[in-house]
Structures are given as structure tokens and as C-alpha cells.
Amino acid sequence: MGRLNINNINPHVRAAEYAVRGELAVKSEELRARLNKGDTSLPFDKIVSANIGNPQQLDQKPITFFRQVLSLLEYPNLLEKEDVLINHLGYKTDVIERAKWLLKQCGSVGAYSASSGVYAIKESIAKFLEKRDGFSANPDHIYLSAGASSGVNTLLHILSESDKSGVLVPIPQYPLYTATLSVLDATCVPYYLDESKAWATDLATIRGAYDKAKADGVDVRAIVVINPGNPTGASLSEEDVRSVIDFAAKEKLVIMADEVYQTNVFIGKFHSFKGVLSKLQQENPGKYDDVELASLHSISKGMVGECGHRGGYFELVGFDAEVEAAIYKFVSIMLCAPVIAQCLVELMVNPPQPGEPSFELYDKEYNAVANGLRERANALHKAFDQMEGVECGEPQGSMYLFPSINLSQKAVEAAKSENRTPDEFYCMRLLEATGVCVIPGSGFGQKEGTLHFRTTFLAPGTEWVDRITKFHKEFMDKYR
């Protein structure tokens, strides 16, 4: 026997749950390996990974401008052959200019940068935020991170003083939050989103969760808002954003605004927490000056879909200088975010503009991804609408649908006999019958007595949607 076993490792890691890459995902990879080895005994010929927002695994094409610039950053010697790049390889002059500029800013992408990121890239992000919100942004308070997940991890580490430190987290939520709080041995304070109102954020529910936690001796310090939502896709109205900021100001809560899906909005428009907070500060001098806001963004989602590169950033507003120094120290321990990913962040926030040589292709590719997502979301929604016992609000944003399913008592009993929750049982049967991997609602949290699953609508084509419809009908008939 070795020194370590499952009972003597860090108990908080043991207790953490992360369903997006849990049992179903593992099983889908086993089935994929069998297919790759030529196994023909399965009732499907490919796995559709609808369990995770991983756009390029599901055939979303990288944006040409981004990858052309990266290729020059990775191998600067190519810049000695500009004529070949332009005349034979289809590179435009603005690609070459941007690569030269980025190389000048970071030296080599194989070298560490400053811990909080390359300063010129932080300036680009600040300009993007100013343009987006109409209010100034300070590059000194912007930190580049390895995807938004790393930023979340940093902020939750700083926030969690003890096991009594509480963070309000929306339910259903992306399990990064509950898992990280679990590892930190801090307290997750769940607040439920309102499914009957298209998963709206309801202030009375937040207040109820906050009051209950406080009564239980929890020191509630922060509120997480995922906007647009994951797994729900819900997009907050300006009214909702204002009421959350108002509540946070009254109760002295740090706001963590996870805004990685800000370009994936199908209904209404995206309202950033920074933009709305700046407006409130302008309208009510003094009243909102102490609000602490950390907002996060990433290259993993949107039309960029570069999640394997691990790039993102967070901006801090209203944080105490000594606390910010501690955040800087924490990110320094990890040295810096991947420098090539920092460059991708710069390209995301500062893409080709109308009139520039690369704009036409960039615009065409960007819109093709956006329209493809919308079409597939609507096709999937339409299919759910026709399925017995399935209810699903219309797609509002992000990359996910989170339908509720009604299963018979017979199906519930069958799940019990396998020691699974009914939604896990349904998702496992779906995977085994169709090769489509989705995640049970229990992995994100759901109201007692309700069942859901989360699916992405990233996979190309709609043939796999037909597979789900066919399976569902057979499942319902089997367990009547």
C-alpha cells in the first residue's frame, strides 16, 4: 500500500463535486475510445459532447485573424518573409502589424510577463471596457488570468477567511463556484433563480437566502451573478442588475460578475455590472462609492471559443489597496497567465475594425458562428417543445438550454435500483442509446422535486437532436 489513499487526502477535495466532467463525461470518453478502436456494437457511430461549452471540439472554426496573428507570435521568423505571407498564404497587412506590435509589447510569448499581465494588453482591455460601457477603466486594476476560472479561483481564495465565510451563489449554477468553495472549506449560500420567469434573478429570494445564512452564523461576504446565465442562459435586465448592486451596497457584499457569455445574447441586450454601477455612482454621488465589484471575461466562449488557450481577465472596482496588493501577490504565486492567451485576449477586445484589411473575413466568420449558435438553439428548443413532459424556456443567451423533465414513478424506481437520481438515470440511458452526453440538473443544483438536464447547442447539424427526440419517446413509453 502506498502512502496516499482516498481516505487520507485533503477531505475538501474529496468532497468537491464537478459534474461537467463527472461520471457521464468519463463514460462518454470510454465510449468514444471504443468507437475509435472500431467497435461497431454500439447503437451510434459518434459521441456528441453536449456536456461542456467546448466550441472547437464541436467543430466551431477558430477565427482566421486571431490564429494568423498567433502563428506569427509563435514563430516570429515568418515575419522575415512578409511577401510570402501576403502573396501566397493570404495574410493581410493588419495581421502582420498586430503581430509586430504584440511582439514589441511582450518580447517573446515564451517568456513570463508581469504577474498581472502585459501592460499594453491591459490598456487594450481598458479601452474596450470604456467603449462598451461609456465609462473610464484603469489598466492598473485589470488582471489577466488563465481563463475566467482562474480569476474566480483567485477571488474566492481572497474572500474566504474561514469556514464561516459565505458566498451567495445562484442555483442552478456552473459548478466551478460550489466546487471551489468546497475545496476552500467556505460556505456556499444558494439563492434560487425563478424558472417560471425565464430563470430571473429575484431580489426577495436573494434577501431570504442572505437572512437565513446570517441567522445560521454565516459571514456572507459576496454575491456571484452569472450573466448571461450558465446553465440557464438567462440575461439580466438593467433593472435586475441595479437591484443586485443596490442590495450589495446595503449589505456590504462584494459582487462577482461572471460575464463570460456577454456576446452570447439572443433576447434583449447585455448590461454589464461595471456599466450599471458607474451609472448609479453618477446618479447618486457618494451612495455607491464603496461597492466592490470584480467582473470577469474570457476568450473561451462567445464567438471566439478559444477555451484550450486558457485566457481571460478580471477588473476590480472599489477594492481596498492592501487587498488588491494581496490579490497581486496571489496571482504572482502562479507567475502569470499564459502569454499567448493574453495576446488572444487582446485580439478579442480589439478585433479588426470596418475598413481594415481583415475586417470583412472577421465579420463574416464572427456572424457565421453567432447565427449558427442561434439556429441550433432554436432547433433544439423546438424539439424540446414537442417532447412529452419536457418544458424549456426559449433560448435567451450563453450556449446552453436547461429543460425540465417530468419522469414517471416507474422511471424514478428504476433510477433508485441503480442508486442514481432520476435525472442522472435519464442522462445515462440517453448517452448509452444515442452517444449524446448531457449533464443532469443535479450537477448544477435544482429546486427540490424538479428534474432538469443541461445541454449545449454547440454541436454541428441537427441530426443529433433527432436522436434525442427518438430516445425520449422510447424512454417515456418504456417507463409508463
Spatial extent as radius of gyration: 23 Å
Q: Which word captures the global form? A: globular
Total tally of structural domains:
2
CATH class of the largest domain: Alpha Beta
User: Level of helix content?
Assistant: 40-55%
What is the CATH superfamily of the largest domain?
Type I PLP-dependent aspartate aminotransferase-like (Major domain)
Low-confidence stretches: none
Based on the coordinates given, report the CATH architecture of the largest domain: 3-Layer(aba) Sandwich
Largest sheet: 7 strands, mixed
Nutshell version of this structure?
One of its GO terms (molecular function) is transaminase activity. The chain has 480 residues and is of the alpha/beta class.
What brief labels describe this structure?
single chain; 480 residues; alpha/beta; Aspartate Aminotransferase, domain 1; Aspartate Aminotransferase, domain 2; 2 domains; 3-stranded antiparallel β-sheet; globular
Layout of strands and helices, then pairs:
Layout: H1 11-15, H2 23-36, E1 48-49, H3 64-74, H4 82-88, H5 93-106, H6 119-133, E2 142-145, H7 147-159, E3 165-171, H8 176-183, E4 187-192, H9 203-215, E5 219-226, H10 238-251, E6 254-258, H11 273-283, E7 293-298, E8 312-317, H12 321-333, H13 339-349, H14 359-386, E9 390-391, E10 400-401, E11 404-405, H15 409-417, H16 422-434, E12 436-437, E13 439-440, E14 453-456, H17 463-478
Parallel strand pairs: 1-12, 3-4, 3-5, 5-6, 6-7
Antiparallel strand pairs: 2-8, 7-8, 9-11, 10-14, 13-14
Family: Belongs to the class-I pyridoxal-phosphate-dependent aminotransferase family. Alanine aminotransferase subfamily.
GO molecular function: pyridoxal phosphate binding; transaminase activity
Domain Aminotransferase class I/classII large: 94-462
